[in-house]
Specification:
disordered N terminus, 11 helices, alpha/beta, 13-stranded parallel β-sheet
């Protein structure tokens, strides 16, 4: 094997030619005579290094060079191969070639098709600022020590089917003007497609052993990303998708970052990952986001057409051997719970969004737009308030809480305003933007309206309760109004707690009957049972002469009038509370 240093080189002596000479003082590959070229071929043996820089390389002569470098098994073996600033004419075939050292094609131009099918680059492969004017194939190619395609232009189709790329693979600032196909490809290092332009791209059954980024790229044609496994982060931030997008089924171990991305056409995304950040994303057409495990951030996002985010069962996709279930083990190990959750909807426009089978226990709703038009379907789970008797940090230091749906902002607000003990035991405690009682009431009002417009009045009841709670505690609510709301809360739990109204009604009847027997009659008083039955019947306006000629005194008349007013009100509140819980 001959090293590059053992073959001294100089520029071609032909005027205006700067091509590398084949031999010391001789012409370059393009200008060498047949005799000079034959002598050069005779000097080659497999494993030699070659240098054809600044040269016009014709396919016929170059195929003879590769033939001279074949080992006894018939495989071309090259040492260091240098083709900087060279131009290849005609179809070039590197098939099965082994590059034992670095392969450098910086600023090379391939005028016709080229095949690296079955090649192996043991050293680093550099295709920096290359131009491939026709189809290029890297099928079943192995890159053992990293590869760089930075600034390269692919004018027609490019294939990486069955390729394996170890080390870092850099495709930044590339232009893929034809179809780009990565199928059954393995990337063992970090992969970068930053600031690239794709006419169309297909990634099928591809494994990324590290992170993958498409940041600042533009997909002008169809983008398909199916059966893909990413062991770290998928970064598609600030990327524009001008055509139809299909991402997934895909598994991403760390997170998917799609902040400030723009989706001009329909998008269908199916992904299993711990986190998805869609902050400031803009969906001009419909989005179907099918998710497993992920905590989803939608701050400032816009959905211009009907879109849906859904928690789904394990993914399956088509493979050559039939339907295959996506391997989610790495994601499952890091999260555990496969139900996706919404983390934030702040400043998002939700007029066309629907949520289904997602957890909303940690979601921040405040400052969102068109929240009253958000559709919440399926098993969408909200946080729950503490319930039962709990010790409190506020007077009277013990309180009884009713189980109901609550939003994260109310939990945070209560912890910050004196209810630390009953609410600090909540395991879902998170740090969120601290909203005011008025803004929390507005969130509950919008959620209630959204549920009522979906004909789900029972589902809206807890949101109404939360709205009234925040109005009762807001310092901006006038005192008289707060007193009325407080009485409404005490007597019936805002018309939603039938038991409370029934207890008050029962207490009013019993206490009034006792007081009347002891203080409300002139002369001999009837029995407590007779008085109780009299009040029960008179409360519902059933005429009753059961007390005979017994006369009420002033106190008795006042007590009777009091029960005539309070009794029907408490009874009506009980009926209202039951109706609000069962109404359809």
């Amino acid at each position: 094997m001959t090293e590059p240093s053992s073959r001294p080189r100089s520029s071609c002596p032909i005027d205006n030619c700067i091509g590398t000479s084949l031999t010391a003082g001789g012409e370059c590959l393009e200008h060498a005579s047949e005799d000079q070229f034959a002598t050069f071929l005779e000097s080659l043996q497999h494993g030699d290094s070659i240098a054809f820089r600044n040269t016009q390389i014709h396919a016929q002569r170059f195929s003879q060079v590769l033939e001279a470098l074949r080992d006894p098994g018939g495989r071309p073996i090259l040492g260091t191969a240098s083709f900087q600033n060279s131009t290849f004419h005609g179809a070039v075939n590197f098939r099965q070639a082994l590059f034992t050292e670095r392969g450098t094609f910086t600023r090379a131009t391939f005028k016709h098709s080229v095949s690296f099918d079955g090649c192996r680059f043991s050293g680093r492969a550099n295709f920096i600022r290359c131009n491939f004017n026709r189809t290029v194939k890297f099928t079943r190619t192995n890159f053992d020590d990293g590869s760089s395609f930075w600034g390269t232009g692919f004018e027609e189709e490019v294939f990486f089917a069955g390729a394996r790329l170890r080390g870092r693979a850099k495709f930044s600032d590339c232009r893929f003007a034809g179809g780009t196909r990565f199928s059954d490809t393995t990337f063992e290092g970090r992969v970068s497609f930053r600031n690239c332009i794709f006419a169309a791209a297909t990634f099928t059954n591809v494994t990324f052993g590290s992170g993958l980024t498409f940041r600042w790229s533009e997909m002008s044609g169809r983008f398909q990303f199916t059966g893909v496994s990413i062991h770290e982060t998928l970064d598609i931030a600030e990327t524009r998708f001008s055509s139809t997008v299909e991402i997934g089924p895909a598994a991403c171990r760390n997170e998917v970052i799609a902040t400030n991305s723009n989706w001009a056409n329909g998008a269908r995304i199916s992904v299993a990952t711990p986190r998805i950040d869609l902050s400031q994303a803009r969906f001009e057409k419909s989005l179907a986001l099918n998710v497993r495990y992920a905590a989803i951030t939608l701050e400032g996002s816009t959905f211009e057409e009907a879109s849906v985010i859904t928690g789904v069962p394990p993914f399956e996709f088509s493979a050559p051997d039939g339907r295959v279930r996506l391997d989610e083990s790495a994601v499952a190990d890091s999260t555990g719970v496969d139900t996706p959750s919404i983390v934030s909807l702040r400043r998002a426009d939700l007029a066309n969004l629907a949520l289904s089978n997602v957890a909303l226990t940690k979601c921040q709703f405040s400052e969102s737009h068109n929240l009253d038009k958000l559709r919440i379907d399926g098993d969408a789970r909200f946080g729950r308030s503490p319930h039962g008797w709990r010790r409190s940090s506020k007077f009277p230091y013990f309180s009884h809480w009713i189980d109901r749906k609550v939003i994260n902002e109310e939990r945070q607000w209560r912890r910050q305003n004196g209810w630390r003990r009953p609410w600090s035991n909540d395991r879902r405690r998170t740090s969120v933007h601290l909203a005011s009682a008025d803004s929390i009431a507005q969130v509950y009002r919008s959620l209630r309206k959204a549920q009522e417009e979906s004909r789900n009045d029972p589902g809206a009841a807890d949101f109404y309760y939360g709205e009234m709670e925040m109005r009762r505690h807001s310092q901006n609510t006038p005192r008289a109004e707060r007193l009325i709301i407080w009485l409404y809360w005490v007597t019936s739990g805002y018309g939603l707690r039938a038991s409370r109204a029934i207890v008050i009604l029962s207490a009013a009847i019993l206490s009034t009957s006792w007081a009347t027997v002891n203080f409300g009659f002139t002369g001999h008083a009837p029995s407590f049972t007779s008085t109780l039955m009299y009040y029960l019947e008179s409360m519902v306006s059933i005429r009753n002469d059961g007390l005979g000629s017994t006369q009420f005194n002033t106190v008795g008349a006042a007590l009777r009038l009091f029960l005539k007013v309070v009794g029907p009100v408490a009874l009506a509140l009980s009926i209202l509370a039951v109706r609000n819980r069962v109404k359809r």
